[in-house]
Amino acid sequence: MGETQPAAEAFVGQLTNSQTQLYGYVYSLLGDHSRAADVLQETNLVLWRKLEEFQPDRPFLPWAFAIARFQVLAHLRDHRRDRLLLDSELAEAMSPHVEQHLASLPDDAAAVQLCLQKLSADHRQLIEKRYFRSMPVRRLAEELDRSVSSVKVALLRIRRQLGECLQRRAVEGQHD
Q1: pLDDT (tens digit, 9 = 90+) per residue, 70-111?
Q2: Domains of the chain and CATH, by start
């Protein structure tokens, strides 16, 4: 029992420290805060059930991302009729990129804030409405008198711009 206790403590520490990255990963695949929170909770339960598979000497995040990916795919399968969700093939195709990106991003709210400040006022407002206020894309499109697809493209470009900014900040942080 002596060896199990330190492994369990290491697991709990890793699980606790990875919540931000796991939530970001799940949210990036689902695009909905409520669904992402539900899937994260389910992911945490599955991870806990698989405690005996945990290996403290191996990286935790890739293992946790794999479990989360399966939970996202199960959620998409179970909610297939909801047209607002990504389809499972797209989520599967995106997941390795998102995993790599999230694993390398700084877990630093100041970096995110700085990158948000570098956006134009229009882009910052679009991000705020979509992601901080959870405004549906359709409603954003109506408000801006634009097509849904043009708003989706704009959001994609802005997210890419933010991701590049955060990557630059992470690389700069490694050299400090």
Answers
A1: 998 888 887 765 544 444 555 555 556 555 555 555 455 567
A2: 1-104 (1.10.1740), 107-176 (1.10.10.10)
